[in-house]
Write a structure and sequence with these properties.
The complex is a heterodimer of chains A (104) and B (196). With 104 residues, chain A is mainly β. Chain A is built from no helices and 15 strands. Chain B is of the alpha/beta class and 196 residues long. Chain B has six helices and 15 strands. Chain B has a 15-stranded parallel β-sheet that branches. Classes of the chains: A mainly beta (104), B alpha/beta (196). At the A-B interface, β1 and β2 of A face β1 and β2 of B.
């Protein structure tokens, strides 16, 4: 089980800073910073800049995403913001508006 | 859906901000901000919360610096360290739990009306004796009133007796106030005469 789970009924307004994996099913407004992976599940709403390790996004993200590893935007994801990562995948059906910055 | 998953804030997680929601909440990490949930909030032994917590039920095994309010119950279990007021219909404090603060059990309506009274009562002792800790204020509530009585008596009453110089000063201070109304009265009378 992941270290931190923000459940579907929960809203956090502020900063979330974690040394471990974070799974978001609810809502975060502010800032999300993790050392490990971040998963934004379908139905989740993140209105925040996200910094972290490998990321999987299936929910809605408004904000910039910076990953030290990879970012996977899955089908059903809705991302408005810039994405910076060494590897990025965007699945068919993912909505995305923003710049992509990969190590080229 | 609301109770499908419990929200868990892991040991390595720090939240600065407000947490709200209708779910159960398990805090192993650190929260600096208000927590309000309509489910059960559990602060585990590694968890710290430095703000108030409102929930249906709160279970504390960690540290809380802030008020605990619950619609149903608050359980302070072994290892709990709480500095703040605790209000809930039912409160359980287990052996090994540490608490510094005002505690009130009972129904919500009694809590509210009761809450304002003891706070107001406790406020004066805290002001007059700032050294006294918050919880101490709740316990020796009858003790502070004598202090109050002593203090007002100590300032105005002995002062004239000990220092006559002060009496003249205080007398000088006291004197102008009747003079002003007297002038007003006279002025009013004069005005009335003028009008008449």
């Amino acid at each position: 089980m992941a270290g931190t789970v923000i459940g579907a009924g929960i809203t956090i307004e502020g900063e979330v800073i974690s040394d471990e994996e974070v799974v978001v099913q609810g809502t975060i407004r502010g800032k999300l910073q993790a050392k490990e992976g971040v998963t934004v599940e379908a139905g989740a709403v993140v209105e925040a800049d996200i910094h972290g390790g490998p990321m999987v996004v299936a929910g809605a993200v408004t904000g910039n995403i910076v990953s030290s590893d990879r970012v996977d935007l899955q089908s059903g994801a809705r991302v408005v913001g810039n994405v910076k990562a060494s590897r990025i995948t965007i699945a068919d059906g993912a909505q995305f508006k923003g710049n992509v910055d990969m190590d080229v | 859906m609301a109770n499908d998953t419990t929200t868990v804030l892991g040991r390595g997680t720090r939240v600065r901000g407000r947490i709200t929601g209708g779910q159960d909440l398990e805090i192993h990490g650190h929260v600096e901000g208000e927590v309000s949930a309509s489910g059960e909030v559990t602060i585990e032994s590694t968890g710290t919360v430095s703000s108030s917590i409102a929930a249906r039920t709160s279970v504390v095994r960690g540290a809380v610096r802030g008020d605990l309010t619950a619609e149903d119950a608050v359980h302070l279990e072994d290892g709990a360290r709480v500095v703040g007021d605790v209000r809930a219909p039912r409160i359980a404090i287990a052996q090994g739990a540490l608490l510094k603060g005002y505690v009130q059990t009972g129904d919500a309506s009694a809590q509210r009306s009761g809450a304002s009274r003891p706070k107001a009562a406790a406020a004066d002792p805290v002001r007059t004796a700032p050294v006294a800790a918050r919880p101490a204020a709740a316990r020796p509530a009858p003790a502070p009133p004598p202090r109050k009585v002593e203090k007002p008596a100590a300032r105005p009453a002995p002062a004239p007796a000990k220092r006559p110089a002060v009496v003249t000063l205080s007398g000088a201070k006291a004197a102008p106030s009747p003079v002003v109304p007297a002038l007003k009265k006279g002025a009013k009378g004069a005005l009335a005469k003028k009008r008449g």
